[in-house]
């Protein structure tokens, strides 16, 4: 274990879940940030490396119960907790000047009533909603740089917004006829005992869920409307895939101008994402696989124009735990702290 002092101290609330563990995996390799505090109510006093032996030799730290005074000694605190936790703890941290990065949905929606409708509870910090910056760097990098509170996008919203973004920015598609079919690995559901996530239920099986309305719909529509500068209407159907990590989103939209060729649209995507460190526009007509992003902070995108019809199809893949959660959270942290955006996120995807 290195004893070299690092410049910034990070705290993680919710260190025993999948996104908390993924933050640990990424941050132990970060050149400028050390993990100073990691919480768990159920594992108070347990050594992190006893719980996650894959971190043996990388981290000498014990879980402690969440304690705002202790967390307030950090430069940045991540909330890798279920909804309705960050909004209760963060006001005190914000008052102490700590930068907060929330991986939950508490601060993703601007309207507290819309949040209450989809999450079934009253928002307890509605006055902080306006301060939160939506942490999609490809869209909001400058605001993230100045932010004290960043709301990280959900996993489906990341894959879907990055796929539609250049098309909506340039008004190339009809924003009222957007369709997103997306499928996620089971780690998207978190590290809890749930019957549909048992191996005998989820493996060797495939099904849609939430087809009549999923809580990511208002988040995606809010983000896409910001990009389009107009209201949008999206049909979104999520599916559960019998694998652990990864999201594959297939996006469909009618082109406003059918004379626009796939080559033109490909050029537009390549130009829009040319300076983005974590968005890869693959050659037109390719079929990105989820494993091309497994363990890495990339979104890989490919465009199709099936049989030259007036529809553009965008394929967008991410690792839900990395670009869809903890990797994007670290990317946001780097931007907020003025560090190189790729710091701690240089790793390539796993093969196979
Ligand atoms: N899984 C994914 O792919 C993605 C998840 N997200 C979001 O990230 C957040 C975390 O997700 P995930 O890691 O999957 O969740 P998990 O269920 O796997 O983990 C939740 C963590 O939060 C802690 N926790 C639970 N309740 C509280 C509480 N009241 N106070 C303090 N800590 C608490 C738990 O530890 P303990 O109970 O021991 O304290 C645990 O460490 C969620 O909001 C999720 O929606 C976002 C994008 C993708
Ligand atoms: C497979 C699976 O169950 N996925 C989760 C989405 C996980 C995620 O990113 O959502 P939040 O951060 O908004 O909770 C779901 O559909 O609820």
Automatic annotation (TrEMBL):
| GO biological process per UniProt | L-arginine biosynthetic process
- Recall the GO molecular function terms of this protein's record: N-acetyl-gamma-glutamyl-phosphate reductase activity; NAD binding; NADP+ binding
Residues annotated as catalytic: 155
Locations listed in the record: Cytoplasm
- Which biological pathway? Amino-acid biosynthesis; L-arginine biosynthesis; N(2)-acetyl-L-ornithine from L-glutamate: step 3/4
Looking up InterPro entries in the UniProt record yields:
AGPR (IPR050085), AGPR_AS (IPR023013), AGPR_dimerisation_dom (IPR058924), AGPR_type-1 (IPR000706), NAD(P)-bd_dom_sf (IPR036291), Semialdehyde_DH_NAD-bd (IPR000534)
Q: Which GO terms describe its cellular component?
A: cytoplasm
Any idea where the Semialdehyde dehydrogenase NAD-binding domain is?
9-147
Indicate the family of this protein. Answer: Belongs to the NAGSA dehydrogenase family. Type 1 subfamily.
Protein name per Swiss-Prot or TrEMBL? N-acetyl-gamma-glutamyl-phosphate reductase
Q: Which organism is it from?
A: Isoalcanivorax pacificus W11-5
Read off the lineage from the record.
Answer: Bacteria, Pseudomonadati, Pseudomonadota, Gammaproteobacteria, Oceanospirillales
